[in-house]
Amino acid sequence: MSDSKALAQGEDKGFDFFGFVARFAPLIFLVALMILFALLQPRFLSSINLFNVMRQVSITGLLAIGMTFVILTAGIDLSIGSLVAFAGLVAAAVAKGGLQDRFTVGEGGIGYGWGLAALAAIAVGLIGGYIQGLAITRLKVPPFVVTLGGMSAFRGAALLFAAGGPISGFEPSFTWWGQGKIGPADLAVPVPVIIFLAAAALAHVALRYTRYGRKVYAVGGNPEAARLSGLNVNRMICSVYVIMGFFAGLGAFVLSARLNSAEAVAGTGYELTVIASVVIGGTSLFGGSGTIFGTVIGSILIGVLLNGLVLMNVSSYIQQIVIGIIIVLAVAFDTFAKSRRRRI
Amino acid sequence: MASQNGSRGKTSEVQSRLASLDSPHPTFADAKATFPRKGGRSAHSPLNLWMHDAEIAQPLRSVMTGTEAPSTPADEGPGRPILKMTGVSKQFPGVRALDGVDLEIAEGEIHALLGENGAGKSTLLKILSGAQSADKGRIELFGDEVRFESPHDAQRAGVVTIYQEFTLAPDMSIAENVFIGREPGSRLLVSWKRLAADTRAITDKIGLRRDPMTLVRDLSVAEQQLVEIARALSMRSRVIVMDEPTSALSEAEVANLATIVRKLRSEGISIIFVTHRLEEVFRLCDRYTVLRDGRLVGAGIVAATNVDAIIRMMVGRDVDALYGSRPIPEPGPIALEVKGLTRRRTAQDPHAIELIDVSLRLHHGEILGLAGLVGAGRTETARAIFGADRFDQGSIIVEGQPVSFTCPQDAMNCGIGLVPEDRKKQALFLRLAIRTNVTIAAHDQISRLGFFIDERKENKLVEQYRRLLSIRMASPDQAAGNLSGGNQQKVVLARWLALRPKILIVDEPTRGIDIGSKVEVHNLLVEMAKTGIAVLVISSELPEILAISDRIVTMREGRITGEISRTDATQENLMAMMTLHETPANAGPKIN
Question: Is B388 in Cβ contact with A228 (below 8 Å)?
Answer without folding.
Answer: yes
